[in-house]
Description:
By secondary structure, the protein is α/β, with parallel strands linked by helices. It has helices spanning 16-21, 42-53, 75-79, 84-100, 136-146, 156-168, 171-181, 194-202, 209-230, 255-264, 276-280, 287-294, 329-345, 365-369, 377-401; strands at 2-6, 26-29, 64-69, 105-109, 120-124, 130-134, 233-237, 270-275, 298-303, 305-308, 317-320, 354-357. It folds into two domains: 2-112 and 206-401, Divalent-metal-dependent TIM barrel enzymes (TIM Barrel, Alpha-Beta Barrel), CATH 3.20.20.150; 120-199, no CATH class. It is 44% helix and 15% strand. Strands 1-2-3-4-7-8-9-12 form an eight-stranded parallel β-barrel, surrounded by four helices. It has a four-stranded antiparallel beta sheet with strand order 5-6-11-10. It is globular and about 60 Å long. The protein starts with a strand and ends with a helix. The model has no long low-confidence stretch (mean pLDDT 95). D-mannose is lined by residues 69-70, 107-109, 115-116, 237, 275, 302, 374.
Amino acid sequence: MKESLRWFGPADVVRIGEVQQTGVKAVVSALHHIAPGAVWTPQEIAKRQAEISVSADGRATGLEWNVVESLPVSEDIKRQSGNWKAHIETYRESMQNLADAGLSTICYNFMPVLDWTRTNLAWPMANGTTCMRFDWVDFTVFDIYLLQRPDENYSADIREAAAQRYASMSESDLSVLTKSVNYGLPGEGAAPSLDVLRRHLSEYQKIDAQRLRVNQYDFLEQVCPLAEKLGLRLCCHPDDPPFELMGLPRIMSTEADYQALIDAVDTPANGITLCSGSLGARSDNDLPGMMQRLGHRVHFLHLRNTRREGTELHGSFHESGHIEGDTDMVQLVAAVLDEEAKRKATGRADWTITFRPDHGLDMLNDIERGGQPGYPLIGRLAGLSELRGIIAAQSTLAQRQGPQ
Ligand code: DNO
């Protein structure tokens, strides 16, 4: 398992020299300042590679950019409207430029309008750390009272709970909620206003899950043959959270969704980003089992954990320490190591799977530093250390036992 850390480029409050100190050798990055649909030029790609290779004090970092996360799929492509055909061409051009620069793994998602969504980005835990949280009642407040979408999609219980919650919230609570739900990534520019968000939502009125699926498969039909030729592997990130929000279709939330994806365009270039945190927010997703059954197409791993707060399938949850949540990380890592052993035995060149410790808790200096939500330096390093321990222990035990 190859260790990596996500780095957002010069806009990241974590410096590349600090990434180097964590001991990882690989970096996950993207050109967030380039709008979806525009080409990633060889110059911009080379610039990011240079930024990754040298620290602010001129030290060679020895770090390599090895996963692109994400080369974004434009909303036009997701809807098959407007400039979608031109955007597929620019996507292919960016793929060519990335392959020419030596990159081989490209993560993307097919979530309409919103990427990951939380209702609180710094929820205080009892021991002074903070985490990100998704609370259904808060989310319903946002949807019904702030976005002012019709409430008929919610059950009477949730509507009642949201009415009470809304009545108890101050202006500042509401503004924190709005900022949390509508959060972007560094370099992506300002988050959309509520009016812009409403407009984006209305553009999906005629697109149901089935239509979105067809659009995704059409997109893959257009880009996978080139990916094969260039030795690139695409990998689709799951919906986060893995259920429908604001009436938008969500199609990458379950094992069945992923099985359908890999069956639809049956080529190794059409792969999976297995994110244990996103998928683990649903109680019917068995992460170690998914790794066992879909592992041959997993090109990239996000290892993190969540704690579900109730028993409902689509309930509230918060992010936990990497080995503390509902996903059994020891079993998941065991399944990853088994997959790697299988690949090695069959001579697959890509037998090592890159993972990054994702999210976790903001702790110690992370809190003063005030970085990108979900990307605390110390919190991720704590998670990485735990994962390293699991990997080292399992690898040693496997060696002792010898081939099965
Ligand atoms: C959240 C991330 C996602 C992910 C994209 C991939 O922390 O895992 O934003 O980068 O969905 O396209």
